[in-house]
Design a protein that fits this description.
- This protein is an alpha/beta fold.
- 49% of the residues lie in helices and 13% in strands.
- An eight-stranded parallel beta sheet has the order 6-3-2-13-12-11-10-9. Strands 1-7-8 form a three-stranded antiparallel beta sheet.
- β4 and β5 form a beta hairpin.
- The longest helix has 35 residues.
- The mean pLDDT is 96.
Length: 538
């Protein structure tokens, strides 16, 4: 019998970058092509299933736990694989894109884990995609450094002081237009996962760690099953022992919140934990229930805290589910960016961060996220106070928690309402974030908060929902397309005055303004802002 024909290479359709050949080797491109041919058809089927499920939610106006998987939820005996040593203590995790400076700062931050982000904190320019991979390779080989134009130098601390990397590939909905296999673009998720795993799996094993991943925007256990099958194939294909890969799934969609047990079950040999992702979770609620009536209208995003009843139901169910199955429960983001000029702003923000992390630690979470190195000690203190010398608190089973299907979507229990200031903030943040994203920046400091793509998604979704629901604000104004256009025009004028005409002309401000209005005002709701935005990205 003749040997099977070798897989063709994925085709690169982009101007070559410096050192690109170190990442896009022939063998790496062949691996990406193999992943694409084997798994993209299933990805396509699952994206179609998302649309079908959304249509069902629109028809019924509700969600429930799946009756066909009740046996998985009711089986008390199964557990996920034990955590590897490098992921046993996750009390503080820092997040950020994989640019060269961030790579060094995050690894040096004192956090236990760095979420090295190819997803919402990274605009997927070709340079960011390729050089982000290169920066991680260089970091593992300890050949990375960085010097600012002002002469400030950055270098890695000793290996034992560095954070463990957990890489986050792009979501299933995004393709990578610069890489094609056959007649199709390769999904960005497979590009990010494939290149990172191909180049670093064995190197990480040699260092006593492994290829660890965060899986974003998962909407069902069937999507988790696809990832698990990819992991099994990738490990076999490259001769890496099964179970080496570990994945933490972000429960940042409302549908996934009803399938936490099932998601862990599908990934059980590769599962590490679940994470509570706040902004994307709210975005998912709006997206799925956007036309379900006034009971599902969310107030201003900053008014929906993690103490809201439906958010507490979600986070407590996450802790309960994770610990029942031996998995880590990781809390949400502290997005505050300290001001070097305003200690009073810092003091108020630090108090809020401390209260938030204290609540998570006392609720049973095993760790939490921060966006800035200055917040690492604050978060660590909250978890140190509860954990002491223990690496985690998975022994806290939270058997007192009982969450019903209705409680997860009890939006009407909130006593807050949308406000005119909230509408203006959504327009302001949306324009400012999209403009930076179009310049290739995915993590952007806006009004002392580190914002990523999830911020823009919840902002434009709330604008869409408030107009669609005919919300009337406290000042008597009604949410209309005309009002939003007026506010957006005022914001452009304010930005021009703030940064100057020359800087304004050099930016993407008009494009950002136009795109925000398109995705916020079009009758047909765009599934993801980043899909039309990617068409404008250069």
């Amino acid at each position: 019998m003749s040997a099977p024909a070798p897989s063709p290479l994925a085709i690169v359709d982009a101007e070559p970058l410096e050192r690109q050949g170190e990442v896009l080797t022939d063998s790496a491109l062949a691996f990406l092509a193999e992943l694409h041919h084997r798994f993209t058809p299933r990805r396509d089927e699952l994206l179609a299933r998302r649309a079908e499920r959304r249509a069902e939610i629109a028809r019924t106006g509700t969600l429930d736990f799946l009756p066909q998987t009740a046996h998985i939820r009711e089986d008390a005996d199964w557990r996920v694989a034990p955590a590897p040593a490098a992921l046993d203590d996750r009390r503080v995790e820092i997040t950020g894109p994989t640019d060269r400076k961030m790579t060094i700062n995050a690894l040096n931050s004192g956090a236990k884990v760095w979420l090295a982000d190819f997803e919402d904190a990274s605009a997927p320019t070709w340079e960011n995609v390729v050089h982000g991979q290169l920066n991680l390779i260089d970091a593992y080989q300890r050949r990375i450094d960085f010097t600012t134009p002002e002469g400030k130098a950055y270098a890695l601390r000793p290996a034992e002081e560095l954070a463990t990397v957990v890489a986050r590939p792009r979501g299933w909905h995004l393709d990578e237009r610069h890489l094609r296999a056959g007649d199709r673009a390769v999904p960005g998720a497979l590009v990010d996962f494939g290149l990172y795993f191909f180049h670093n799996a064995q190197r990480l094993l040699d260092q006593g760690k492994g290829p660890y991943f965060y899986l974003p925007k998962t909407e069902s256990h069937l999507e988790a099953r696809l990832w698990n099958d990819i992991f099994v194939f990738a490990q076999d294909h490259l001769g890496i022992p099964q179970g080496t890969i570990r994945a933490t799934v972000l429960i940042e969609t409302i549908t996934a919140a009803y399938e936490m047990d099932e998601i862990l079950y599908e990934l059980r040999d590769h599962a590490s934990g679940l994470n509570a992702g706040r902004w994307d979770y709210l975005f998912s609620i709006v997206k799925n229930f956007r036309d379900a009536g006034p009971d599902f209208v969310l107030p201003d995003r900053n008014a929906v805290t993690m103490t809201a009843p439906f958010m507490r139901a979600y986070t407590e169910l996450l802790v309960r589910t994770c610990h029942k199955r031996g998995a880590h429960a990781i809390g949400g983001m502290a997005a505050f960016i300290p001001s070097r000029r305003d200690p009073e702003v810092n003091a108020v923000a630090y108090q809020k961060v401390r209260a938030d992390k204290d609540r998570e630690a006392n609720d049973g979470f095993d760790g939490s996220w921060v966006a800035h190195p200055d917040l690492v000690p604050i978060a660590r203190a909250s978890f140190d106070a509860v954990l002491g010398d223990k690496p985690n608190q998975k022994d806290r089973l939270r058997e007192d928690v009982q969450v019903t299907a209705a409680e997860l979507i009890d939006i009407a229990s909130l006593d807050a309402k949308p406000t005119s200031a909230g509408l203006r903030n959504a327009v302001q943040v949306g324009i400012r974030y999209i403009e930076a994203w179009l310049r290739g920046l995915g993590a952007v400091a806006i009004f002392n908060l580190m914002e990523d793509a999830a911020t823009a998604e919840i902002s434009r979704s709330q604008i869409w929902q408030w107009i669609n629901a005919g919300v009337v604000f406290e000042n008597g104004e009604k949410a209309t397309a005309g009002l939003v256009r007026t506010i957006a025009a005022e914001e452009l004028t304010a930005i021009r005055e703030e940064i100057g005409a020359e800087a304004f002309a050099a930016g993407n401000w008009q494009q950002a303004h136009d795109l925000l209005l398109k995705v916020a005002l079009d009758e047909d709701y765009a599934e993801f802002l980043t899909l039309p935005a990617y068409e404008l990205l250069r």
